[in-house]
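Chapter review: from sequence to fold.
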Amino acid sequence: MAELQTGPSDLAQVYRDHRLALVRLGFLLTGSREDSEDLVQSAFATARARWDEIEQPLAYLKRAVINQASDLHRRRAWERGRPVPEGVTEIPEVDETWAVVQRLPRRQRTVVVLRFYEDLPPLEIARLLSRHPATVRSDLRRALARLRKALT
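The token string follows.
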């Protein structure tokens, strides 16, 4: 049986295969192409230092992008001396519901993006966010209720 290679070339392959999807995720969470590129670069740089220890590279990288996007929102809000903004406001609409998705609270927006834009099941979302599946389902229900109300 062949041994699983986890060296630098494996990291390079994961980068080639998944960078664009991770940039898209970062963009959906931050609304900025530049920020999303930075988040992904940072996630890969962090992963590189401990690549041999990471069992599920894609899950690790997605979680890193999500966490760094949250950190970015908090840092910018702190720098401005205001509460964390509830929505991203400086991007073109991805589809007709995107403007409403932008106004969701950050946790709800993250769950909606992972569920409907990344097509992840709730259990995988819970694992990525280190949250209980019932909490993820609850956030998703609340987000969908807000979306329904805003779109009717």
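Two observations follow directly from the output. The CA atoms of residues 11 and 17 lie 10 Å apart. The two ends are 57 Å apart (CA to CA).
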